[in-house]
Design a protein that fits this description.
74% of the residues lie in helices and 0% in strands. It is built from 2 helices and no strands. By secondary structure, it is mainly α. α1 packs parallel to α2 (52-61). Keywords: Coiled coil. Residues 14-41 form a coiled coil.
Length: 62
Amino acid sequence: MKRVAEYVEAKANYDATVSKAEELNAAVEAAANELKNEDITVTTSSQVVNSVADVEALLSAK
């Protein structure tokens, strides 16, 4: 049962990380499209995140 509980916790953390990353990606894409519509050149870069903490750090930097 301990292994199952560990898996469930790890899966929940993974799902939370993916959800936050998708939210951040959508916000960046929307902002980039809005700027492009105003004829502003937009350059984006990508970064791999490995945890919710990584995503939260990116969100707090904006």
